Automatic annotation (TrEMBL):
This is Phage tail assembly protein. Residues 102-123 are annotated as: Disordered.
Amino acid sequence: MFQTEFEFTLPCGYLDEDGTLHRDGVMRRATAADEILPLKDPRVQRNEAYLIVILLSRVVTRLGGVAAINPKVIEGLFATDLAYLQNLYNRINRLDEPADADELAPGAGAARPGEFSATPSIN
């Protein structure tokens, strides 16, 4: 069966303004619109590195008890968690070999040295 959503657990977690730590979440596969529309965003046009923030805010559908995932939430992630989610995004959406639930079990999306880049790979 074709899987469109993948659960994850952040290495550090998102610390909200009330001091609550949110680690468990869900990311869905990206659509063409998820990758195309952010390119029109002025923040991305000024700074290409911001593309991953917009992309992740579109495809992360749940993060603990956070009411709405938006760019501000993604901006508030620790760098370790941003790298983790970027790696997970790349693995879920790669063309050569589709991801499956076993491969992307919690902890499987950890970034490895040399794999982090400012923008997602769209292979």
